[in-house]
Structures are given as C-alpha cells and as structure tokens.
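fold-stage: in
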Amino acid sequence: MMNENVAYPIHQQVEVIYRSESRRVFATLIRLLGDFDRAEEALHEAFAVALEQWSHDGLPANPRSWLVSVGRFKAIDHIRRRTRFDAALPELAQQFDTIDTPQDDEDVEDDRLRLIFTCCHPALSPEAQVALTLREVCGLTTEEIASAFLIAPSTLAQRIVRAKAKIRDAGIPYQVPAIADLPERLDTVLQVIYLVFNEGYAASSGEVLTRTDLSTEAIRLGRLVVELLPDPEGMGLLALMLLQDSRRTARTSSTGDLILLEDQDRSRWHQDYIAEGKALIQRSLSSQQFGSYTLQAAIAAVHAEAASTAATDWAQIVALYDLLFQMERSPIVGLNRAIAVAMRDGALAGLQQIDAILAQGDLSRYHLAHAARADLCRRLGKTADARASYQQALALVKQEPERRFLEKRLHELG
C-alpha cells in the first residue's frame, strides 16, 4: 500500500531516505547477497528504481523494506542474465531466492552490527579497518576519506579493494561475534572508532573533507555502537569523544593557532556534549564493568566541571590516572599523570617523573613528552633545558599549529 505524496518533490524525498536509510539497506543487502560490491550495485539500482516508480505511485509504507526487496531482486536478475557465462551462478541465484528479507527493525539493526564487526575484523590491517568502516558503515566516498587522511584516492581505493578481497578469500563471516569472543572483538571496533576520532581531533583547521569531520564521523559511529550494543566501554568511549570534542571551537584561534586548555574560553565549550558525556560516564561506572575509556572520560569530565585551570581538582585527576595506570601501564598514561602531578605538587615533582619516563626511552620520539618537559623547565626558570626540549619537540612535531606554538615558546625564551 502506498502513502499519499507529500508536498516535497519526489527527488527530495528520495534524498532524505537515502541519507537516513541507505547504510541500513546496504548492511542487509550484504547479508542477503554475500558480497560488498554486489550489495553496493543493488543499493544504487534500488534507489534508481525508487526515484522512477515513487514518482508515479508515491512512497511505500515501508521504504527500507521496499528498497531491500528491489535491490535483492535486481541482483538476482543480473545473476540470472549472466548464467550462460558462469555455471555456478544459477545455484547462487536460487540460494538468494530462498533468503527472506528482514521484516522488522531488530533484523536490520543486527545487520548493521554485522557490518561493523566485519569491517573491523582483526584479520584486516588497522588501516584497512578504518578505510572500510568509513566507506561502508559511514558511507563516505573514497575521495572524501582519502582527503581526510591526506593520501591519494587511488591508494585508498586499493586499500578498500584489498580489504574486501581479504574478507572474501579468508571466508571472514558476516556475523556478530559469539559471546565468548565479543569483548575482544568489540575492543577492536572501539579502537578503530577512536583512531578515526583522533585523526580528526589532532587536525589543525578544517581543510577539504576536513580531518575535523572525522571526529564527527567517529562520534556518529560511537553513538551507533552504543545504540546497537550498550556496552559500558562503548559508553565510555562515546563520553570521552564528546567531552574532548566539546572544546573544539575553543582549541584554536581565528588564525588557526593552538590555544592551550588553561587559556581557552570555557564559555565556548559545548555544554550539551559535556552533559551527555557525564551522563554516559555515570551509566558506565554504575555497571562496575568499565575500562580505560571510561576512566579517560572521567578525567575529561573533571576538566569540564572546573571554572579554570587553577580551580581544577588535580588531586582527583591524579587519582583517576592512578587507576588508569593500573589498567593500562603505558608510558603515555604515565606522562599525562606526571603533568597532573606537576599541577598538584609543583613543576619540579612533575619534571622528575617526566625525566624518569624519558630515561626509559619509550617516548624519546614523542614530541609532546619533550614539549611537556620544556614547559616545566620554563616554569622552573631552567631556560637552557627548556630551550633544548623545545628544539627536540620541534624536530618531531608534524602538525603545523603545534609547530607554530612551539616556535613561539622558543622565541619567548630569548
């Protein structure tokens, strides 16, 4: 049964449905047709038919189900027309005929989860996981993803082709992992999402499909995972991204220069993101099954609650870093804890800890470790040491706004 046409032209209605439903339709078509490229072709054919048929008949009662059915039938029809060239195709077409299209939202959401876990399968390289997730789950074009990661579109396209071939040749199943495997597999999904977020967050100002837009895509992915699979660490990661992104507009000046946390205009922080992030933290903590993302989010929340750097509860931040370090004994966590110790106990206490971390060698190529050391030396009046550390940081830094900031600090030392 068809609905009456609304006042909007049909092409606008189809565009709206494409934006809201295409990734859901695509996820289901992959399950039904067993192939990424075949599903992509079927998706576009279904929307082409929709544009023509809905112009005469109006919108169907359930556009998503209609599109899935048409896409599947179009794919089967193509396969049948090619049967004379491939003896295996008739059997494949018959197999597709026996699979029912999903009848409710639960089936569709299961398909979306299947797609996420397939794109983030540990058999794929991290670079392939990211590229495939942005392309197939988020629906970004190859050109958009390539621009965001500052690589050639042909390189990105080959990465996606190889990832799809790996899924096909290795027989990677299109399914949600078993309960026993879920924690490890979900951790990989969260790592991919956070990697995408950090690529955007570390960017200077938005150029092309801006790297900043990657942060937006990561938050959208985080929301999707929490919606489909409300795991405490998924909530923790979403909270962390929201709280970090809440400072986006205050992090750089109008000329693109970096503004440190202590100098940011906190009235420009996104309060809705902060409130949402804090609520997610409470949900995760109350589960008693939280992990490192939730603790990092809790640290970000303490910053968000403070009226200024001086008013920040540094003792609480150090205590949270203590818990985080017990979970994740990484030198970067140790570095961040040392910076918090410097704010709680004084620059000398923090400098001693940073020197001990650098002496271990793990962060010798990490520009932020040298920049943090330089800042503490500057505060202590150790000008020569500060200059040397700023120069080391400059030799390692990649982002232009950070480079300009370090050069400015170095110039101020005289």
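fold-stage: in (second)
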Amino acid sequence: MSNLERYNTVFTSVFNVELDALTNDFSSETVDNWDSITQLSLVTDIEDEFDIMLDTEDILEFKSYEIGKKIVAKYDIEL
C-alpha cells in the first residue's frame, strides 16, 4: 500500500466517507462532522499510521485534506 493510500485510508476511516469524497475542498469548513474530537482522532491516526509526532503548530494547521498532505510531507513522508 502506498503512503497516499495509507493517508486516504485514515481520512476515510475517521470521517466515514468514500474515497471520492476526498477532494481539494475536503476541509474543516466544508465537512459537517469535522470538529475538535474528529480533529484529534485524525491527528492521532495520522501519527500512528506514519509513526510520526506532529508539532503543535502542525496540529493546529491540519484543517484540510490538502494541507494535511503538505504537513505530512514535512516529516519526510512522500505521498
């Protein structure tokens, strides 16, 4: 499984959506169930999946599918 597939699996699992829902517009502003609890689950699952520890600043900025890709890339995870 590629890193992108792993990343997508975390998103589809946390948000309980199909893969085709993960578009550039998938963000905390457009997804109804993206709240603080879901944010925590997302961050925890991303950290577990890729064996990384996100900085506080990155956790606070992790507000969309696309931004998340850039944040994960900062930890040498190629998507």
